[in-house]
């Protein structure tokens, strides 16, 4: 059976029906629509997902260690990423009054729930990685011929 997401005319209604979840209300709230798009843009960011994954795996982590575990991220980008995640309620920052300052980060319940939600994407990618690799190879081959 074909995946309804492969069809260009797929709508949120057919996707939800296919996933056996209730249909959204007939009129979608524009504010909610905008919020969902904004959240997807943020969490689709490479660094946000990596920070989310590290904090999910390691729990409470100091700033410097978080940067080491994420790998390849500048201090400026890490600061920007965790601040945005904190602003969105995904991360809790704790500052300990010691010298030098000790700053720790951990996921909030909201952040953990986002990690759980995106776990489905990882599972999907794991299940379909061979199909994706095949499609990419085919596309590259066909692009070279054209």
From TrEMBL:
Tell me the domain of life: Bacteria
Key words, A-Z:
DNA-binding, Transcription, Transcription regulation
List the SUPFAM superfamilies hit by this protein, alphabetically. Answer: Winged helix' DNA-binding domain
Q: For the HTH hxlR-type domain, which residue ranges apply?
A: 29-133
Molecular functions per Gene Ontology: DNA binding
Q: Provide an example Pfam family for this protein.
A: HxlR
Q: Which PANTHER family match?
A: TRANSCRIPTIONAL REGULATOR, MARR FAMILY, TRANSCRIPTIONAL REGULATORY PROTEIN
Protein's recorded name = Transcriptional regulator, HxlR family
Q: What is the species of this protein?
A: Granulicella sibirica
């Amino acid at each position: 059976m074909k995946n309804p997401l492969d069809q260009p005319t797929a709508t949120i209604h057919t996707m939800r029906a296919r996933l056996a979840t209730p249909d959204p209300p007939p009129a979608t709230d524009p504010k909610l629509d905008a919020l969902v798009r904004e959240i997807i843009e943020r969490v689709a960011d490479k660094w946000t997902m990596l920070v989310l994954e590290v904090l999910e795996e390691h729990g409470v982590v100091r700033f410097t260690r978080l940067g080491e575990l994420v790998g390849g991220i500048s201090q400026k980008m890490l600061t920007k990423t965790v601040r945005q995640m904190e602003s969105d309620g995904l991360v809790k920052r704790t500052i300990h009054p010691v010298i030098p300052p000790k700053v720790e980060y951990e996921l909030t319940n909201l952040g953990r729930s986002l990690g759980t939600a995106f776990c489905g994407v990882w599972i999907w990618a794991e299940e379909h990685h061979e199909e994706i690799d095949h499609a990419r190879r085919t596309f590259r081959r066909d692009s070279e011929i054209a």
